[in-house]
Amino acid sequence: xxxxxxxxSATPPYNLSQYFKQFVFPQNECELxxxxxxxxxxxxxxxxxxxxxxxxxxxxxxxPRVVGHRYGSPVHTMVQNIIYEKLDPSVPKPSCVPAExxxxxxxxxxxxxxxxxxxxxxxxxxxxxxx
Amino acid sequence: xxxxxxxxxxxxxxxxxxxxxxxxxxxxxxxxxxxxRGGYALLPPLLKVxxxxxxxxxxxxxPRLQPDSRALRYMKRLYKMSATKEGIPKANKSxxxxxxxxxxxxxxxEHPPRDLGKGDVHSVDLLFNLDRVxxxxxxxKSVLLYSFDTSxxxxxxxxxxxxxxxxxxxxxxxxxxxxxxxxxxxLHFEARKRRWLEMDVTSFLQPLIATHRRNIHVAxxxxxxxxxxxxxxxxxxPLNAALVxxxxxxxLNDTSEQAHHRWNSPGHGRTGDSPRLDPTGxxxxxxxxxxxxxxxxx
Lengths: 131, 298
What we know:
Low-confidence stretches of chain B: 1-32, 34-43, 53-63, 112-119, 175-181, 233-238, 267-277, 283-289
Largest sheet of chain B: 5 strands, antiparallel
Mean pLDDT of chain B: 64
Oligomer: heterodimer
Helix content of chain A: 10-25%
Radius of gyration of chain A: 24 Å
Largest interface: A-B, 33 and 48 residues
Distance between the termini of chain B: 59 Å
């Protein structure tokens, strides 16, 4: 720059970080968390023969304001966020919930002593979304 | 407000929580107001089992029939073939069942084995109670499962002939009527390879199970010979196997919403009706219609 202008006043550091903060994703953003339980903890291992351990997973975290691109959320989610922010805070913010699941195979002993192998749908959360 | 408060308490304790205190605390469903409890019937079968069993095992020690140890060993082996250690169903393209039920006979009468000189005739009357089969579970295959309970010379081949007859309850309420003749099933296998002997009786039991018969009473007449009479030079010796009364294995397709439907899952890459393969994953032959359909799809 041949014509040095007056040295711009150094923007105090805190403004810059403040300025960028609005673009940083929230620290505890909505995401899938692992949770493993064993049926012996629940004292159900007498009749749930398999599996011994079960990881249902769960979704937890804040939903960013502009959710469309990251979670496949419908436009309604952003509308609900705007209602919450600008019109009526009693309307809840969008929630972090499971969007997809996977099945689980269970081997159990029935009350009559028969044994059943069953595959249940939607027993393990595999993906989260904001709704 | 009252019922809602109670509902929320049910929600917090939940049937998964370890209950403490009186029976009413034990089973959260009992805390629900009467109007809501009706919804209990809507619970998916697994949750019903969990909440039922949770209630029974904590509130009242109802006697629990323990399954036969051999049957349990077989079902654990089936589980290992069908799911991973974490319980994820294996994406096995040709295994269509999402439910397998094993019933041990709750009643059998031993007929004194009549020695026909060509082999032991082993006959039993068996009563299977199928109350646990739901209306939404459709039969894909049924098998009588024998386990050999004796040491058989390993290199031998075994040839068995089995006759099955459905027994109606006698007018005099007689429980073990005499044996009448019926379609025969024959089997030939190598002892060393089999701890289990699966006899496919689907065609025989289909009509009974399709009509949701709760009790199936069959008379089974089983004749086994060691060695192959046509070829072996050795005298055919009757098989003194102590055949344990068989269990009944039902491969079912549970059409309820809570059950996992394989052919709809991405692993199958198939939509609509399930491919006509053998439900248990044996080498089935996709019929010409299936081939044509898959060619059209391609």
